Amino acid sequence: MMRRDLLQLALTAAALAPLAGRVGAGVSDPWSAAFAAALEERPWLLGYLGCEDRDYAATAQVEGAWPAALAGRLYRNGAGLHEFGDWRYRHLFDGDGLVQSWHFPGGGDGGQVRHHARLVATRKLTRERAAGRRLLPAFGSLPPAVEGITGADDLNVANISVLPRKEGLLALWEAGSPWALDSDTLATRGPVTFSPQTRGLPFSAHPRLEPDGQLWNFGYVTGADKLVLWHFGADERLRRCVVRDVPRIGIPHDFMVTARYLLIVLPPLAVAADGEGALIDRLQWEPQRATRVLVIRKSDLEVEAELELPAQWIFHHGNAFEDGSGVIRFESARAPDPGLMTQHLRELMRGVDADWTAVASRWHHYRLDLEAGTASEEVVDQRLVEFPGVLPRHVGSRHPEVVLLGRDADRQAAHGGLDQVCVFDAERGSWSSWRYPDTQLPEEHLPVAGADGSRWILGTALDWSAGRSLLNVFRLDDVAAGPVASARLPYALPLGLHGRFLAA
Ligand SMILES: [Fe+2]
How confident is the model at residue 148, as a pLDDT? Predict the structure, then answer.
């Protein structure tokens, strides 16, 4: 693809943003008032209040014995600033990225854990801070009197995940460029351009880092029906970036790699070319259409096969691998439709806490038979699950276990979220789990390896009753015993999305 076309494509990404529509600008925002009233009744909603527009820093109070082999940093990201300029965002995914660093430099050396959190000073937040109010549309929100944009990065809030790289810590969104931060201070440097030809192309928040250091990622441009594929060498240099036409691409959030393939799963979620409101108002679920699975060869980045599954919605995949008999297997948290995103996580922002069990995801196994050209699926368990992860050394090959957040389907939780950290033993087909106290809301938990190869789980949670966020460490091989150590902060942070562990 010629450079001119790539630049045009980056501009076409601006089609993601609706420019039409006006909401009456009021002095007092009804969503903010409704949320404040709901928070009085249900204090666990503290997790969705949002952070203040300031830096956070503290030395955490450690209880238990921090593992000596576990030294490094846990970086996390998530929507942080939900309210700004007397206006509250209408969707949980819209808030500006709040990047956190949990730093445990000494392993067992006194168990000191230092925490730091800063908002990513994107172009968008910088403009809005200067104006003292929201100026630009977001995925699920349309503030009063929005301004025009010139490209997707004008809307980039860098709020989904992180990726530690040589050029710094990258804060990842999914419809635009990564935003680079200083790995120590978390100070914002600016958008990253991997090459002049790829400026502004979308780089998703779920890159897959292989054990040998190669990195793969995808991006999508909904308005132009384009798929972008990225490949970096172990030296972190960009090897290839290609753009493919994929009709009705929708908004795929995650993807997978195997030894020879990239897998992109495309749920039947259409995006209307134009219309009033925010992007979320232009999404159309089409359950009569199939979910498509693109099997793309790593060798030439061409599509080898397109297989079909029943209509379904998947935010996150666990892992994929080739099983040696011509079959690709993968595992994902599968929901019947995107109702959690299109309804529940929107209403939550004004404090409405509906039962979302019917649109929750469950753990599923999939088989792609390339020779027969068929795809099949089976449900593994009835518990509600999200945030699956495997140890970094197993990405793209057969994995012994998956770590997830879960909740028993028949349990009415004391709060609106998931309440267990689970380990699914993929070889035995068995589960083990530890249920959080009812006063705590867990976030994504990551399986990580210590310097000596020991296996751990790192996971954050919000103790909403105490108004404190915390970080727990579990033994991966005995999660049911509960955390071996906890580090508690003197403040509460909003519930976020994804993180990565960087060993010291
Ligand atoms: Fe995600």
Answer: 84
Flag the least confident range among 139-148, 161-170, 263-272, 287-296. 139-148
Q: Which pLDDT does position 110 carry in this prediction?
A: 60
Spacing, Cα 497 to ligand 1 middle (Å):
7
The SS3 assignment for 8 reads helix
* Cα-to-centroid distance, 205 and ligand 1 (Å): 7
Backbone angles phi, psi at 15, to 5 degrees: -65, -15
Ligand 1 centre distance from Cα of residue 35 (Å): 25
What is the span of the domain harbouring residue 341? Answer: 3-503
Q: Helix or strand or coil: residue 159?
A: coil
Q: How far is the CA of 338 from the centre of ligand 1 (A)?
A: 14
CA distance 214 to 307: 26
| SS3 assignment, position 51 | coil
CA distance 115 to 104: 9
The residue among 237, 272, 247, 259 whose CA lies nearest residue 326 is 259
Going from the Cα of 163 to the center of ligand 1, the distance in angstroms, rounded, reads: 13
406 contact partners, CB below 8 Å, separation of at least 6: 383, 384, 385, 418, 419, 420, 421, 422, 433
Distance 386 CA to ligand 1 centre (A): 10
Number of structural domains, the chain? 1
Distance 3 CA to ligand 1 centre (A): 30
Task: Specify the pTM.
Answer: 0.94
What is the CATH number for 29? 2.130.10.10
Q: How far is the CA of 498 from the centre of ligand 1 (A)?
A: 7
Q: From ligand 1's centre to the CA of 332, what distance in Å?
A: 12
Q: Which residue has the higher pLDDT, 111 or 75?
A: 75
Q: What tens digit of pLDDT does each residue of 443-454 get?
A: 999 999 999 999
